[in-house]
């Protein structure tokens, strides 16, 4: 085909034969196209259930899920679900954030996956600024201020008080049942509550 009758000039026609062969359609070309289509379909199905990770920026305030953090509370069931808020120090890749944690959290690694973080939502009420309460130092330890005592109950022979914390009076989900031993810095409030509640 690419040689003369005497078949002595084949080396002259070799580049043309090679080019024709390389440009011809082969079964491997079709397999490559089908493989690319299959990869696209797999990616489409795999990404269908995935969520786009939230884009936290440095300086933004976030809550940390408490599920992997040990607290001094006796049971996890009645502990806070979210801790914080804390400020994002820097973003590491697309799925991790380095947070500014207080000194008392030095045992906790400051880098968290974005699935464990929740943005602090701004108030929808016009011109409302929600101030975060500051902890009170009691004998070198931080303690949150008690706004008022709302209720009391006996549980397993132990007296518990329903406490509304200072700075969270707008949020009823932030009230907690506390034993009297946790309210040693607020004896006046305990006394006032005892006077007004019969029993």
From TrEMBL:
A family per Pfam: Chromo
Start and end residues of each Chromo domain: 144-193
GO aspect biological process, one term: chromatin remodeling
Name assigned to this protein: Chromo domain-containing protein
